[in-house]
Specification:
single chain, alpha+beta, Beta-Lactamase, globular
Length: 116
């Protein structure tokens, strides 16, 4: 399989995966999100891409945790996310720094459960 075909398969699989995938830049702006994350949070892809992490991860420690991830290039933990309808969920995640086309980005992959 060519690297281009592999990239296409990987992109389709990540978008359809039953896990939340978020890609953010160093300014905490979402640059990409997968379909599952959009569905779970109730936002369209366009809505999430117009947001920054603190607008979804609304707990006080979120910016500090992001800064730690930038310093160490890796982080795992649990985040509290607010859905579009105001409901909250807990996201257990692993996140890390990646280089894409010369740009440093931060990828987080996790699974969620709703807070009752």
């Amino acid at each position: 399989m060519s690297s281009e075909a592999r990239a296409t398969v990987l992109a389709a699989a990540v978008d359809a995966a039953p896990a939340c995938v978020f890609v953010a830049d160093g300014e905490m702006r979402y640059r990409a999100v997968n379909a599952y994350a959009c569905e779970l949070l109730g936002y369209s892809e366009e809505e999430l891409l117009a947001m920054r992490i603190p607008e979804v991860a609304t707990y006080d420690q979120a910016p500090r945790e992001f800064a730690t991830m930038k310093e160490t290039a890796y982080l795992e933990g649990t985040s509290r996310l607010r859905c579009k309808d105001g409901e909250e969920l807990l996201l257990s995640y692993v996140a890390g720094e990646v280089e894409v086309d010369g740009e440093t980005l931060y990828v987080s992959v996790g699974y969620a459960e709703f807070v009752s």
